[in-house]
Amino acid sequence: LGSWIAAPPCCCVQVQVVQGFAYAPNFITKTIAETTGQEPLLMPGTGLGPNSSSEDEPQNKGQLQLQPITTRFPPEPNGYLHLGHAKAISFNFAVSRMFSNGKCHMRLDDTNPSKEGQEYVDSILEDVRWIQSGITDNNSGGKDKELLEEDKGPWFGPVRKTSDYFELIHDCAVALIESGHAYVDSLTPEEMREYRGTLTEPGTPSPYASSRSVEENRAMFQDMRSGTYPDGTHVVRARIDMASPNLNLRDPVLYRIKHESHQATGDAWCIYPMYDFSHPISDAIEGITHSLCTLEFEDHRPLYDWTIDTLNQVSPHLLNGAKPRQIEFSRLNVKYTVLSKRKLIQLVTGKHVHGWDDPRMPTLSGFRRRGVPPAALRLFCERVGISKADSNIDFGDLENCIREEMDGTKPRAFCILQPLQITLSNWPNGEEMEDFEVPRHPKIPEMGDRTIPFGKKLYIERSDFFDSEGAEGSASKGRPPKGFKRLVPGGKVRLKYAYVISCDEIKRDPDTNEPVELVCSYHPETRAGFTPEGEKRVPGIIQWVESTSCIKARVNQYDRLFKEVEPGKDSGDYLMDLNPKSFEKFSGVAIEPSVSLDAMAIMSEIRDQEEFGPADDNEDKLYPSQVAYQFERNGYFAL
């Protein structure tokens, strides 16, 4: 069957779920409405207001000629997306859906070839498609027959890359140089830091800022592009204000030399723009109306505005006068985890986890491998909301969203993690079995029934038997724990959906004295929950599987990766706060046979999808972990 991955144990919380959509934050939509005159749609995700009578009739009839609200998600392809990115994805796509004709672009900020690669590009696109799966609207690039297969997704149009605009970004740098707003600097990195000044002391202009003419700067920049100079010898800097209280405005670097092959452009370039330069230009090129980003970019906004305003002044034809508006919100912080890309890389390279998709990792691929539905992450982002105030969200809030989503969508099954054999001495049918038809979900009859075989030999969970005559009994003077209502020597227990059994004899391992088999008798008159008149109801109910028909599997059970609320805060080293019990492996696990049917079905569908492609442009990619169950009394598990 394969490896089953444990999700958090069940503790069902009944909260109304908004399916398929993470609502846009009020303060952002309010800001957009106030500055553009466009009101958000009343029914998010549908494209229709409550009084609309036609699918083609927009809610805001007077806004048809207004510029579409356009957002974007622009990660750098130098790592795997994590839970913090899920929030950014959810809100960028949500904001675009809340406005008539809104769009959300997918752009890869690929300006640093030394840290980027195709592996990260592929994983990012897969993660964005996955977390937005189940949401379909008119912005879906996947519906565009003209797009290449690798460009299709929930975003508008093709996948865009900053490298697509390298030539135009270069022209923007030339325009700034020719207008005297930028120059080539030859200070060493150490000298540049010294000249920059501090938060309390102004910086000192570079001697190269005034010693070189516009013509010299233009010629040197051309030589930089031609590969004349080695790495680190020259940079292009903006000429702004070395005395500015905002350090980002003290003649920031716009271009640097890097003789490295680029995963998209190859060796066509040996100079690359800095993020703070390429970012606002790329937004302007694409017609992004609103750049939604986290608060650490708030101090960078004056530089973005200076870049666009200056270019629109000296060379208005380059960007056609476009000027995106930036709105900042607080980043996501979650207790018992780390979301720093640097720390996540250390966890992987240091082999503290089993790769980027380790189910304990807060990466989207890790959540997917764990069997977490994307709708659960969207629900979490919706409930966290968005503001400018920092907060540290409890990890339990995320687990509640996962449980809530899975409780309403995943069937139940019996799974015995640590099997103890039961032999029914009075079973009259020899090796023949009896089938029980039981619901796949007790609250959702539409899910149908499943068949559980019952026979002479069964397995129950070892923890469901208290060995009062063994080691655990010796430690407690033969008394089971308070409230224990399951099986004891000479006692009775009900097997769920089946019969009451009595424990008559214990067979033990001669070396360890541990019980290896319980010889029991079953009570045929108690079938399917019936208690005969005059007999006392048996209070304990346990799960079971028939031993000859069950599936044998390996189960990996996962817990939180860190044992401290804020890893590293007290210890000084977040690695010291790793939870040594975050991963537990069970072998020889016994699972009811109905589970194998679902597993084989989805594996067959996955093979067909890989061989023949999706059935249509709206079909989402299938994953084995979509086969998930609530293994009763053990929690949620996925293939």
From TrEMBL:
PANTHER family: GLUTAMINE--TRNA LIGASE, GLUTAMINE-TRNA LIGASE. This is glutamine--tRNA ligase. InterPro entries: aa-tRNA-synth_I_CS, Gln-tRNA-synth, Gln/Glu-tRNA_Ligase, Glu/Gln-tRNA-synth, Glu/Gln-tRNA-synth_Ib_cat-dom, Glu/Gln-tRNA-synth_Ib_codon-bd, Rbsml_bL25/Gln-tRNA_synth_N, Ribosomal_bL25/Gln-tRNA_synth. Residues 541-595 form the tRNA synthetases class I (E and Q) anti-codon binding domain. Signal peptide: none annotated. GO terms for cellular component: cytosol. Belongs to the class-I aminoacyl-tRNA synthetase family. The keyword Transmembrane does not apply. Keywords: Aminoacyl-tRNA synthetase, ATP-binding, Ligase, Nucleotide-binding, Protein biosynthesis. One of its GO terms (molecular function) is ATP binding. Its EC number is 6.1.1.18. It catalyses: tRNA(Gln) + L-glutamine + ATP = L-glutaminyl-tRNA(Gln) + AMP + diphosphate. Residues 38-63 are annotated as: Disordered. Residues 411-523 form the Glutamyl/glutaminyl-tRNA synthetase class Ib anti-codon binding domain. SUPFAM superfamilies: Nucleotidylyl transferase (SSF52374), Ribosomal protein L25-like (SSF50715). GO terms for biological process: glutaminyl-tRNA aminoacylation. Gene3D superfamilies: HUPs, Ribosomal Protein L25, Chain P. Residues 69-407 form the Glutamyl/glutaminyl-tRNA synthetase class Ib catalytic domain. The lineage of its organism: Eukaryota, Sar, Stramenopiles, Ochrophyta, Bacillariophyta.
